[in-house]
Amino acid sequence: MKKLLFVLFAVALLVSACGQPVKNLAKPKVGLLLPETINEPVWGSEGYKGLLKIQSALNADVFYKENVKTKSAVKEAITDFEDKGVTLIFGHGSEYGPLFKDLHTQFPDLDFIYFNGTFTADNVTSLQFESHAMGFFGGMIAAKMSKTNRIGVIAAFDWQPEVQGFIEGAKYQKPDININVRYTKSWGNEKKALKIYKEMEASGVDVYYPAGDAFNIPVIEAIKQDGHYAIGYISDQSDLGEATVLTSTIQDIGKLYEKVAAEYMTGNFEHGIKSYDFQDGVISLGKFSSEVPKDFMVEINKAIELYKLTGKLPSHL
Protein backbone atom coordinates (compact mmCIF):
# COMPACT_ATOMS: atom_id res chain seq x y z
CA MET A 1 0.00 0.00 0.00
CA LYS A 2 2.82 2.37 0.86
CA LYS A 3 4.47 1.61 -2.47
CA LEU A 4 1.22 2.36 -4.30
CA LEU A 5 0.83 5.67 -2.46
CA PHE A 6 4.42 6.60 -3.36
CA VAL A 7 3.81 5.88 -7.05
CA LEU A 8 0.58 7.91 -7.05
CA PHE A 9 2.37 10.79 -5.34
CA ALA A 10 5.20 10.71 -7.90
CA VAL A 11 2.71 10.71 -10.79
CA ALA A 12 0.88 13.65 -9.24
CA LEU A 13 4.13 15.59 -9.04
CA LEU A 14 4.91 14.90 -12.69
CA VAL A 15 1.44 15.99 -13.81
CA SER A 16 1.53 19.18 -11.76
CA ALA A 17 4.99 20.03 -13.11
CA CYS A 18 3.97 19.45 -16.75
CA GLY A 19 4.50 22.57 -18.84
CA GLN A 20 6.06 24.55 -16.00
CA PRO A 21 9.10 26.50 -17.23
CA VAL A 22 11.51 25.52 -14.46
CA LYS A 23 14.54 23.31 -14.49
CA ASN A 24 13.94 22.07 -10.95
CA LEU A 25 12.05 23.07 -7.82
CA ALA A 26 14.71 25.63 -6.88
CA LYS A 27 13.95 29.20 -7.84
CA PRO A 28 16.08 30.14 -10.90
CA LYS A 29 18.32 33.20 -10.81
CA VAL A 30 19.20 35.28 -13.88
CA GLY A 31 21.65 38.16 -14.36
CA LEU A 32 21.86 40.92 -16.96
CA LEU A 33 24.94 42.97 -17.90
CA LEU A 34 24.34 46.27 -19.69
CA PRO A 35 26.97 48.43 -21.44
CA GLU A 36 24.95 51.54 -20.64
CA THR A 37 21.90 51.94 -18.35
CA ILE A 38 18.38 50.54 -18.12
CA ASN A 39 17.13 54.04 -19.00
CA GLU A 40 18.92 54.12 -22.35
CA PRO A 41 16.23 54.66 -25.01
CA VAL A 42 15.36 51.55 -27.01
CA TRP A 43 18.23 49.07 -26.45
CA GLY A 44 18.95 49.40 -22.73
CA SER A 45 15.34 49.81 -21.70
CA GLU A 46 14.24 46.89 -23.91
CA GLY A 47 16.86 44.65 -22.28
CA TYR A 48 15.62 45.60 -18.83
CA LYS A 49 12.03 44.92 -19.87
CA GLY A 50 13.19 41.49 -21.03
CA LEU A 51 14.69 40.80 -17.61
CA LEU A 52 11.42 41.81 -15.94
CA LYS A 53 9.54 39.44 -18.28
CA ILE A 54 11.77 36.61 -17.12
CA GLN A 55 11.06 37.58 -13.53
CA SER A 56 7.27 37.68 -13.89
CA ALA A 57 6.69 34.87 -16.38
CA LEU A 58 9.21 32.37 -15.03
CA ASN A 59 9.17 33.26 -11.33
CA ALA A 60 12.90 33.94 -11.41
CA ASP A 61 15.07 36.08 -9.16
CA VAL A 62 16.75 38.64 -11.42
CA PHE A 63 19.74 40.95 -11.04
CA TYR A 64 21.33 43.53 -13.31
CA LYS A 65 24.43 45.69 -13.49
CA GLU A 66 24.78 48.86 -15.58
CA ASN A 67 27.76 50.46 -17.32
CA VAL A 68 29.71 47.21 -17.39
CA LYS A 69 32.16 47.58 -20.27
CA THR A 70 35.68 46.47 -19.38
CA LYS A 71 37.03 42.96 -18.80
CA SER A 72 37.73 43.67 -15.15
CA ALA A 73 34.25 45.13 -14.61
CA VAL A 74 32.61 42.14 -16.32
CA LYS A 75 34.63 39.67 -14.25
CA GLU A 76 33.71 41.49 -11.05
CA ALA A 77 30.02 41.53 -12.03
CA ILE A 78 30.03 37.82 -12.94
CA THR A 79 31.71 36.95 -9.63
CA ASP A 80 29.06 38.92 -7.75
CA PHE A 81 26.28 37.21 -9.70
CA GLU A 82 27.79 33.80 -8.95
CA ASP A 83 27.91 34.63 -5.23
CA LYS A 84 24.17 35.41 -5.43
CA GLY A 85 23.43 32.02 -7.02
CA VAL A 86 22.90 33.26 -10.57
CA THR A 87 23.45 30.54 -13.18
CA LEU A 88 22.31 32.27 -16.41
CA ILE A 89 23.85 35.59 -17.50
CA PHE A 90 22.76 37.73 -20.45
CA GLY A 91 25.33 40.17 -21.86
CA HIS A 92 23.16 42.79 -23.53
CA GLY A 93 25.19 43.46 -26.67
CA SER A 94 27.75 42.16 -29.12
CA GLU A 95 30.58 43.70 -27.07
CA TYR A 96 30.21 40.91 -24.51
CA GLY A 97 31.26 38.23 -27.00
CA PRO A 98 35.04 38.82 -26.71
CA LEU A 99 34.72 39.30 -22.94
CA PHE A 100 32.82 36.04 -22.45
CA LYS A 101 35.37 34.34 -24.69
CA ASP A 102 38.14 35.40 -22.32
CA LEU A 103 36.27 34.68 -19.09
CA HIS A 104 33.92 31.72 -19.63
CA THR A 105 36.45 29.03 -18.63
CA GLN A 106 36.86 30.72 -15.24
CA PHE A 107 33.14 30.19 -14.55
CA PRO A 108 32.37 26.66 -15.84
CA ASP A 109 29.16 26.36 -13.82
CA LEU A 110 27.59 29.48 -15.35
CA ASP A 111 25.94 29.92 -18.74
CA PHE A 112 26.47 33.04 -20.84
CA ILE A 113 24.36 34.54 -23.63
CA TYR A 114 25.10 37.59 -25.79
CA PHE A 115 24.11 39.11 -29.17
CA ASN A 116 25.47 39.06 -32.72
CA GLY A 117 28.74 37.19 -32.38
CA THR A 118 30.45 34.13 -33.80
CA PHE A 119 32.07 32.77 -30.63
CA THR A 120 30.34 29.94 -28.79
CA ALA A 121 31.44 27.35 -26.23
CA ASP A 122 29.98 24.69 -23.94
CA ASN A 123 28.56 27.48 -21.79
CA VAL A 124 28.34 30.40 -24.26
CA THR A 125 25.61 31.19 -26.81
CA SER A 126 25.24 33.96 -29.39
CA LEU A 127 21.71 35.14 -30.19
CA GLN A 128 21.12 36.64 -33.62
CA PHE A 129 18.08 38.41 -34.99
CA GLU A 130 17.62 37.48 -38.65
CA SER A 131 16.80 41.05 -39.54
CA HIS A 132 17.18 40.94 -43.33
CA ALA A 133 13.46 40.36 -43.89
CA MET A 134 12.29 43.09 -41.54
CA GLY A 135 14.55 45.50 -43.42
CA PHE A 136 13.13 44.27 -46.74
CA PHE A 137 9.54 45.07 -45.75
CA GLY A 138 10.61 48.41 -44.30
CA GLY A 139 12.31 49.21 -47.61
CA MET A 140 9.17 48.36 -49.56
CA ILE A 141 7.15 50.78 -47.46
CA ALA A 142 9.76 53.55 -47.69
CA ALA A 143 9.93 53.30 -51.49
CA LYS A 144 6.14 53.25 -51.77
CA MET A 145 5.74 56.39 -49.66
CA SER A 146 8.55 58.54 -51.08
CA LYS A 147 7.35 61.50 -53.11
CA THR A 148 10.84 62.61 -54.20
CA ASN A 149 11.99 59.08 -55.16
CA ARG A 150 14.85 59.51 -52.67
CA ILE A 151 15.10 57.52 -49.43
CA GLY A 152 17.88 57.28 -46.88
CA VAL A 153 19.37 54.79 -44.41
CA ILE A 154 21.32 56.09 -41.42
CA ALA A 155 22.83 52.95 -39.91
CA ALA A 156 25.50 52.23 -37.33
CA PHE A 157 27.54 49.53 -39.11
CA ASP A 158 27.76 48.07 -42.60
CA TRP A 159 27.29 44.50 -41.31
CA GLN A 160 23.69 45.13 -40.22
CA PRO A 161 21.53 42.66 -42.24
CA GLU A 162 18.52 44.95 -42.10
CA VAL A 163 20.37 47.53 -44.20
CA GLN A 164 20.87 45.22 -47.18
CA GLY A 165 17.31 43.95 -46.69
CA PHE A 166 16.01 47.52 -46.78
CA ILE A 167 17.87 48.22 -50.03
CA GLU A 168 16.55 45.05 -51.66
CA GLY A 169 12.98 45.70 -50.52
CA ALA A 170 13.04 49.27 -51.79
CA LYS A 171 14.44 48.18 -55.18
CA TYR A 172 11.81 45.45 -55.40
CA GLN A 173 9.03 47.95 -54.76
CA LYS A 174 10.42 50.66 -57.03
CA PRO A 175 13.42 49.65 -59.21
CA ASP A 176 14.40 53.26 -59.99
CA ILE A 177 14.38 54.43 -56.34
CA ASN A 178 17.42 56.42 -55.24
CA ILE A 179 18.83 55.09 -51.93
CA ASN A 180 21.39 57.00 -49.88
CA VAL A 181 23.12 54.81 -47.25
CA ARG A 182 25.46 56.28 -44.60
CA TYR A 183 27.05 54.85 -41.44
CA THR A 184 27.91 56.42 -38.09
CA LYS A 185 30.32 53.58 -37.07
CA SER A 186 28.73 53.73 -33.63
CA TRP A 187 25.37 52.83 -32.09
CA GLY A 188 25.31 56.03 -30.09
CA ASN A 189 26.85 58.83 -32.17
CA GLU A 190 23.79 61.08 -32.14
CA LYS A 191 25.71 64.13 -33.38
CA LYS A 192 27.00 62.33 -36.47
CA ALA A 193 23.59 60.75 -37.16
CA LEU A 194 21.88 64.16 -37.10
CA LYS A 195 24.58 65.62 -39.34
CA ILE A 196 24.03 62.83 -41.86
CA TYR A 197 20.29 63.42 -41.68
CA LYS A 198 20.66 67.12 -42.52
CA GLU A 199 22.91 66.28 -45.46
CA MET A 200 20.41 63.74 -46.74
CA GLU A 201 17.54 66.18 -46.36
CA ALA A 202 19.43 68.75 -48.38
CA SER A 203 19.73 66.19 -51.18
CA GLY A 204 15.95 65.65 -51.29
CA VAL A 205 15.52 62.49 -49.19
CA ASP A 206 12.00 62.36 -47.73
CA VAL A 207 11.80 58.88 -46.11
CA TYR A 208 14.42 57.67 -43.62
CA TYR A 209 15.43 54.47 -41.86
CA PRO A 210 17.54 55.46 -38.82
CA ALA A 211 18.86 51.99 -37.95
CA GLY A 212 20.78 52.74 -34.78
CA ASP A 213 19.13 52.04 -31.45
CA ALA A 214 20.84 54.84 -29.50
CA PHE A 215 20.40 57.63 -32.05
CA ASN A 216 17.20 56.83 -33.93
CA ILE A 217 14.84 58.65 -31.56
CA PRO A 218 16.51 62.09 -31.89
CA VAL A 219 16.76 61.54 -35.64
CA ILE A 220 13.04 60.71 -35.85
CA GLU A 221 12.26 63.83 -33.81
CA ALA A 222 14.17 65.90 -36.38
CA ILE A 223 12.39 64.11 -39.23
CA LYS A 224 9.05 64.87 -37.58
CA GLN A 225 9.92 68.54 -37.20
CA ASP A 226 10.81 68.78 -40.88
CA GLY A 227 7.66 67.00 -42.06
CA HIS A 228 9.22 63.82 -43.51
CA TYR A 229 8.62 60.10 -42.98
CA ALA A 230 10.58 57.51 -40.98
CA ILE A 231 10.66 53.77 -40.41
CA GLY A 232 11.09 53.00 -36.70
CA TYR A 233 13.76 50.63 -35.39
CA ILE A 234 13.90 47.89 -32.69
CA SER A 235 10.69 48.91 -30.88
CA ASP A 236 7.31 50.19 -32.07
CA GLN A 237 7.95 53.91 -32.35
CA SER A 238 4.55 55.03 -33.59
CA ASP A 239 4.22 57.02 -30.35
CA LEU A 240 6.85 59.42 -31.72
CA GLY A 241 4.32 60.56 -34.31
CA GLU A 242 1.78 58.48 -36.22
CA ALA A 243 1.96 60.82 -39.20
CA THR A 244 5.77 60.52 -39.21
CA VAL A 245 6.54 56.89 -38.36
CA LEU A 246 5.12 54.81 -41.23
CA THR A 247 5.78 51.58 -39.34
CA SER A 248 8.61 50.07 -37.26
CA THR A 249 10.89 47.09 -37.76
CA ILE A 250 10.60 45.44 -34.36
CA GLN A 251 13.02 43.09 -32.63
CA ASP A 252 11.17 41.94 -29.52
CA ILE A 253 14.07 41.57 -27.11
CA GLY A 254 11.81 40.92 -24.14
CA LYS A 255 10.02 38.05 -25.82
CA LEU A 256 13.34 36.56 -26.96
CA TYR A 257 14.84 36.76 -23.48
CA GLU A 258 11.77 35.08 -22.01
CA LYS A 259 11.83 32.38 -24.70
CA VAL A 260 15.52 31.58 -24.19
CA ALA A 261 15.26 31.60 -20.39
CA ALA A 262 12.25 29.26 -20.51
CA GLU A 263 14.16 26.82 -22.71
CA TYR A 264 17.10 26.99 -20.33
CA MET A 265 15.01 26.39 -17.24
CA THR A 266 13.22 23.38 -18.73
CA GLY A 267 16.50 21.82 -19.78
CA ASN A 268 15.76 22.24 -23.51
CA PHE A 269 18.52 24.72 -24.25
CA GLU A 270 21.69 23.91 -26.18
CA HIS A 271 24.53 26.37 -26.63
CA GLY A 272 25.63 27.60 -30.05
CA ILE A 273 24.64 30.33 -32.51
CA LYS A 274 20.85 30.71 -32.42
CA SER A 275 18.95 32.71 -35.03
CA TYR A 276 15.42 34.13 -34.77
CA ASP A 277 13.06 35.65 -37.34
CA PHE A 278 9.38 36.42 -38.04
CA GLN A 279 8.56 32.71 -37.72
CA ASP A 280 9.73 32.71 -34.10
CA GLY A 281 7.44 35.55 -33.09
CA VAL A 282 10.28 37.87 -32.07
CA ILE A 283 10.46 39.99 -35.24
CA SER A 284 7.51 41.90 -36.64
CA LEU A 285 6.38 45.18 -38.13
CA GLY A 286 4.81 47.72 -35.81
CA LYS A 287 1.67 49.78 -36.08
CA PHE A 288 1.07 51.27 -39.52
CA SER A 289 0.60 54.99 -39.94
CA SER A 290 -2.72 56.13 -41.39
CA GLU A 291 -0.58 57.73 -44.08
CA VAL A 292 0.09 54.29 -45.58
CA PRO A 293 -2.66 53.27 -48.06
CA LYS A 294 -4.83 50.48 -46.68
CA ASP A 295 -4.50 48.30 -49.76
CA PHE A 296 -0.72 48.48 -49.47
CA MET A 297 -0.90 47.54 -45.77
CA VAL A 298 -2.87 44.45 -46.79
CA GLU A 299 -0.25 43.65 -49.44
CA ILE A 300 2.60 43.92 -46.92
CA ASN A 301 0.81 41.82 -44.31
CA LYS A 302 0.08 39.10 -46.87
CA ALA A 303 3.74 39.09 -47.92
CA ILE A 304 4.82 38.73 -44.29
CA GLU A 305 2.46 35.79 -43.70
CA LEU A 306 3.73 34.12 -46.86
CA TYR A 307 7.30 34.68 -45.70
CA LYS A 308 6.48 33.03 -42.37
CA LEU A 309 5.13 29.98 -44.21
CA THR A 310 7.71 29.65 -46.98
CA GLY A 311 10.77 31.57 -45.83
CA LYS A 312 10.70 33.41 -49.17
CA LEU A 313 10.56 37.17 -49.66
CA PRO A 314 8.42 38.59 -52.50
CA SER A 315 11.51 39.05 -54.67
CA HIS A 316 12.21 35.29 -54.53
CA LEU A 317 8.75 33.97 -55.30
UniProtKB/TrEMBL annotation:
The keyword Lipoprotein applies. Residues 1-19 form the signal peptide. One of its GO terms (cellular component) is plasma membrane. It is found in: Cell membrane. InterPro entries: BMP_lipoprotein, Peripla_BP_I, PnrA-like. It is a lipid-anchor. The keyword Signal applies. Residues 28-293 form the ABC transporter substrate-binding protein PnrA-like domain. Keywords: Cell membrane, Lipoprotein, Membrane, Signal. Gene3D superfamilies: 3.40.50.2300. PROSITE patterns: PROKAR_LIPOPROTEIN. Belongs to the BMP lipoprotein family. This is BMP family ABC transporter substrate-binding protein. The lineage of its organism: Bacteria, Bacillati, Bacillota, Bacilli, Bacillales.
